[in-house]
Amino acid sequence: MFRAVLNLFGKWELTDEQAATLLDMPVRSYRRWKAEGVGRVSRDGAARLSNLMGVHKALRIIFSEAQRGYAWIKAGNAAFAGASALDVMLGGELTDIMRVRRYLDAERGAW
């Protein structure tokens, strides 16, 4: 799943610093994992990866054109008081990522 999330981060055009924040790890560790492969993933890390893939899946369902979904991550959104979904997720907490995922799941009628 880590490789899939790395690919997703590329589509979202994230910096290493942003990616490391989303995964709650030091930038050096993120860069090492990116170059050499994943080490041991904690429960929190696995939950982060799963929720990030859930965000991606919901966007693929909502937007028929993939590029629109990738761009949506950085666009301001009234549901987040004008902040982008990325801004919300960069709060650094697992619950920040989950908030975006829950919003998207509700938008696509998954609940």
Automatic annotation (TrEMBL):
Domain of life here?
Bacteria
Instruction: Give the Gene Ontology MF terms in alphabetical order.
Output: DNA binding
Report any Pfam family annotated for this entry.
Xre-like-HTH
> Where in the numbering of this chain does the Antitoxin Xre-like helix-turn-helix domain appear?
2-54
Please give the InterPro entries that the UniProt record associates with this protein.
Answer: Xre-like_HTH, Xre/MbcA/ParS-like_toxin-bd
Which residues does the UniProt record annotate as the domain Antitoxin Xre/MbcA/ParS-like toxin-binding?
58-109
Name by which UniProt lists this protein: Antitoxin Xre/MbcA/ParS-like toxin-binding domain-containing protein
